[in-house]
UniProtKB/TrEMBL annotation:
Domain of life of the organism encoding this protein: Eukaryota
Keyword Nucleus on entry: no
Organism: Triticum urartu
Catalytic reactions on record: Hydrolysis of terminal non-reducing beta-D-galactose residues in beta-D-galactosides
SUPFAM superfamilies per record: (Trans)glycosidases, Galactose-binding domain-like
UniProt GO cellular component terms: apoplast
Protein name: beta-galactosidase
Keyword field: Apoplast, Glycoprotein, Glycosidase, Hydrolase, Secreted, Signal
EC number(s) recorded for this UniProt protein: 3.2.1.23
Record Pfam families: GHD, Glyco_hydro_35
Cleaved signal peptide residues: 1-27
Sequence ranges assigned to domain Beta-galactosidase beta-sandwich in this UniProt record: 364-419
Length: 529
């Protein structure tokens, strides 16, 4: 202020005016029509990718956002993790890896939009689907249905998130990056089992969300009966055949599975780059205008945050950016090239609907043509044979299971099966840390001498916590989520002369939803599964 005071009057006024301008970003108007999201009056073709903030560290966020931007993304999609933000009822945590405001700002700093998927049930291979433990113990509560105690808590948390975002000015209507928001999550996959209360719950959730007045559209994914103005969106490996249930809704793909999650004991997931690129191109070919990679960066399930049977601590997902934040080639580079080719078609894609043209068996074209604009996608959907097709009197060679993109209806700028981006030869090196000790104590010594830390979780059958009860226990009620392990033990006495013990080939058959089985015969370990 002192410095301003020494300036001549006119200059001071100008400087103040500039300061004011920098302080208020312009609002962005986000709506939609049957083709696309409409941003400031213009339909947009958008590419999005999921990055979940608690699955990386805040110092990684700017780098991840920049790699997403450089990879041709327009938008980052994240769930909001209720249990992380409200571990104790009414006590909120928005710090460190839970600093959602900082994460959204990091996206904005890289020039990316944000799709905020509040849920607050999120699934996400996350502990208890994101529900905090205390929710389980609210008297009379029934999750995800027309139940007053549940709706009260869901609304309170949703309002808290929206207020936090509004407080930081992060909605597009306030000049921020959030252009889209989701309520509930894949409820349409299970709502039949809830009957009429499930239907009224969805109507309530939609109304509750819209009343929060964020100024940006809301979606429900996998919810065919999502009430207007909510948009029903698709999740899956392929969504090109998806049609929104309301004719006024655009075709949006909220989860394109870039790979799959890893479970302990399972194979390391791998989705070929060519197949992913094919599915992406097919989606835009057949009228889609927003596609999201689930995941673009999968990251790490820290602590006990992973949920579901045997989900590993790595949530790498075979994503275009690997668990460590490094680009995965050729996936990242080839998809960047695919995004560039699709963006070259954007003027035609937003101007009109596609018209379909057969190019022979298992080959088809979709053409976006109006006035002087023309873009075309030529697809060979035969997964075995290459083809040569004729389009507009010209011959085009299409490898099996591929799409060629022609932003001018004549020249192919990219075929999804032909990878031109550089193939990196990343080599992982062991930095000298070893756990190959034969006994427990030396492993501990090694861990203590490094910068690694570890947690001990009691595993096994202990006498101290043992109890006897006929039948199965309710897991959360019994463990209070302090452990993932709940061991049942039972014994049966097999009388001599039982026919099934005859011979050496006897098999023990156990029908079980449990994950691990240990068998002892006469006190001697006999095997496990
Ligand atoms: C926002 O955009 C829609 C559609 O383009 C338009 O009808 C509406 O008037 C706009 N609203 C504002 C506040 O500019
Ligand atoms: C979805 O992603 C998969 C793999 O990530 C890809 O093979 C597929 O082509 C994608 N589909 C669309 C329509 O984007
Ligand atoms: C290839 O296509 C055929 C015919 O549509 C289908 O039955 C088969 O499962 C496909 N194979 C693969 C590997 O996708
Ligand atoms: C589990 O339920 C029983 C009976 O409803 C209750 O007494 C007990 O406190 C519950 N356990 C926990 C960890 O809350
Ligand atoms: C056991 O198997 C033998 C022949 O394999 C048979 O003779 C005998 O009767 C069987 N015993 C019982 C109890 O089923």
């Amino acid at each position: 202020m002192a410095a301003v005071g020494r300036l001549p009057g006119a200059a001071a006024a100008l400087l103040l005016a500039l300061l004011c301008l920098a302080g208020t970003s312009a609002a962005t108007n986000v709506t939609y029509d049957h083709r696309a999201l409409v941003i400031d009056g213009v339909r947009r073709v958008l590419v999005s990718g999921s990055i979940h903030y608690p699955r990386s560290t805040p110092d990684m966020w700017p780098g991840l956002m920049q790699k997403a931007k450089d990879g041709g993304l327009d938008m980052v999609e994240t769930y909001v993790f209720w249990d992380a933000h409200e571990p104790v009822r009414g006590q909120y945590d928005f710090e460190g890896r839970n600093d959602l405001v900082r994460f959204v700002k990091a996206a904005a700093d890289a020039g990316l939009y944000v799709h905020l998927r509040i849920g607050p049930y999120v699934c996400a291979e996350w502990n208890y689907g994101g529900f905090p433990l205390w929710l389980h113990f609210i008297p009379g509560i029934k999750f995800r249905t027309d139940n007053e105690p549940f709706k009260t808590e869901m609304q309170r948390f949703t309002e808290k998130v929206v207020a936090t975002m509004k407080g930081a000015g992060l909605y597009a209507s306030q000049g921020g990056p959030i252009i889209l928001s989701q309520i509930e999550n894949e409820y349409g996959n299970i709502d039949a089992s809830y009957g009429a209360p499930g239907k009224s719950y969805i109507r309530w959730a939609a109304g509750m969300a819209v009343a929060l007045d964020t100024g940006v559209p809301w979606v429900m994914c996998q919810q065919a009966d999502a009430p207007a103005p909510l948009i029903n969106t698709c999740n899956g490996f392929y969504c090109d055949q998806f049609t929104p249930s309301l004719p006024s809704s655009p075709k949006l793909w909220t989860e394109n599975w870039s790979g799959w999650f890893l479970s302990f004991g399972g194979a390391v997931p791998y989705r070929p780059t060519e197949d992913l690129a094919f599915a992406v191109a097919r989606f835009y070919q057949r009228g889609g205008t927003l596609q999201n990679y689930y995941m673009y960066h999968g990251g790490t399930n820290f602590g006990r945050s992973s949920g579901g049977p045997f989900i590993s601590t790595s949530y790498d997902y075979d994503a275009p950016i690997d668990e460590y934040g490094l680009v995965r080639q050729p996936k990242w580079g080839h998809l960047r090239d695919v995004h560039k080719a699709i963006k070259m078609c954007e003027p035609a894609l937003i101007a009109t609907d596609p018209s379909y043209m057969s190019l022979g068996q298992n080959a088809e074209a979709h053409v976006y043509k109006t006035g002087s604009l023309c873009a075309a996608f030529l697809a060979n959907i035969d997964n075995q044979s290459d083809k040569t097709v004729t389009f507009n009197g010209k011959a085009y060679k299409l490898p099996a299971w591929s799409v060629s993109i022609l932003p001018d209806c004549t020249n192919v700028v990219l075929n999804t099966a032909q990878i031109n981006s550089q193939v990196a030869s990343t080599q992982m090196r062991n930095l000298g840390f070893s756990t190959q000790a034969s006994d427990g104590s030396s492993v501990e010594a090694e861990l203590a001498s490094s910068t690694w830390s570890y947690a001990v979780e009691p595993v096994g059958i202990t006498k101290e916590n043992a109890m006897t009860k006929p039948g199965l226990m309710e897991q959360i009620n019994t463990t209070a989520d302090a452990s993932d392990f709940l061991w049942y033990s039972t014994s049966i006495v097999v009388a001599a002369g039982e026919p099934y013990l005859n011979g050496s080939q006897s098999n023990l058959l156990v029908n079980s939803l449990g994950h691990v089985l240990q068998v002892f015969i006469n006190g001697k370990f006999a095997g496990n599964v």
